Amino acid sequence: MQMKFISFLTLVVIIMSLCTVSAFAETAPIVTVGNAIGKTGESVEIPVILENNAGFSSLGIEIGYDETALTLTNVVASSSTGATFTKAQMFTINPYNMSWDSASNTTFNGTLVTLTFEIIAKANGDYPVIIDYYKGRNGNYIDGNNVNYDENFEPLGLAYVSGKVTVIGNDEPVAEKPSVTVGSATGKKGDTVEIPVILENNTGFSSLGIEIGYDETALTLTNVVAGQGVGATFTKAQTFTVNPYNMSWDSATNTTFNGTLATLTFEIIAKNSGLYSITVDYYKGRNGNYVDGNNVNYNENFESLGLTYSDGKIEVIDIEQNSIALSSDLNINLTGDIGTGKIYAAIYDDNNILKQVKTYLPLESFDVAFDFPQKGDTVKIMWWKENFEPMCKSKSVILP
Hints:
Immunoglobulin-like; mainly beta; six-stranded mixed sheet; disordered N terminus; flat; 6% helix
């Protein structure tokens, strides 16, 4: 009888342990991507939801998806998270990264962001929208260490649940229309950037005429180089100051070229940072009376190409949007493009002789330390890109 009683107690302890484990698992913080259903050409919204959050100081995630099926067109963050939101600069980055940072814990639970995707898939089916922790620019971040921790730098132990977009209604593959697309670039005032103009899904043209528009207060067109192998006679505006700038390709018979039609070089003269559109449209003619598919953009049978046009942009960045705050106790606070480049910390003696150099990952806030610091030594902090180009002005402090 006593043996049976002991066995019963043992069973109770095991059951209680299992319940405890189950309860703990149920309360683990989790980030979930929602699901959506739509047809080709439609836009769908996907929420990214945080649940069971007991408090985070750092939260970094990335979203991956099939670019042949989906195009990310917008990201709207909740205004209630209680943390500073940072997102990738361009929607074309895949996986797309986002982060939230706060000096102290925020216990927000709910929709972190809403992602908008345009469905471009040709075939029906499920297309995953994958979520994981942010790996960092160089892919070396550790979950719970470099990102996803609380105010005591304890790992959150996040779980990740991916979502999907289910595409319906495509009984037959969607025939893609021929398109002319302008690329995009990023730079700062004084830089020159190259922008490709790309023709896709062309089944044959005899006449092709386009024009490129841009903001002359922000950009100066300095060169136009025609693509190789187009198989048609190239004609361009005589001076680069013509805006919109026109280009045309003509052939007696169809050419089925697909690829870069031309590469445009712009000098950035913008005084202010921001996005500046590079627009593309059909060539309107000298008097502005050309009709698309009639006077230009047709095949050898004089049938309209039915071209679609996609604009590009140049993002002008301000080097001073990044900054370093350095205290006398060697605490560093960074603002701007956190996670980009590398921090170099150098210490010099009172004769300005270099004693030591150390490198750090560019986190929002961290401390630097040297092996043998002395009173009167000068510490200099530099934030550089991988090519050793400064991301902002350096900061120095003399040790008290």
